[in-house]
Amino acid sequence: MEINQAIERAKSNDQKAFNFLLDTFWDYVYGFQLKRVKNENDAEDITIQTFSKAFDKIDTYKSDYNFKTWLITISKNIHIDLVRKQKNSISQNITIRDDENYQDILDDSPSPADKLISEQNLANLLRDIKKLKPHYQEVINLRYFQELSYKEISTEIDEPINNVKVKLLRAKKLLAEIIHSSPS
Question: How many helices and strands (H and E) does the chain possess?
Fold first, then answer.
């Protein structure tokens, strides 16, 4: 399959085209982010977010631009947003009083009300996950509840790593749609 053909097929929601694009460009985007963040997990997370956003917005892609360049631009923007969020959360935790520099120690332990809300949210999330097709439920469970790596999931379900990545992307997208359409 040629890249332009895959892009056109992806615009029609062709899963094989998504797989092809992910297989073709994963290493490039991942390598780019790994050089920037110097952390494999962060690079992987940003790369997943990049493909997720790119696949969500594939209809906006214009063939005037190189697809690889388009992906890298999305990836850069995601990384910049994450850095900004981290800076904001760090600066909010540091205060200066009476000319003494110190960091407020926040009590992050959940209150009984927080625990109840978390349990309720978890119950709602589990209910929404059950609305997914079984193979999507399985990869969500393995990745987020059993905290397996992509390689471990690949071994567990006997599928290539890139299929696992695409399946997770798709599962997360479908789950987000279910959550947004569910009454609160």
Answer: 8, 2
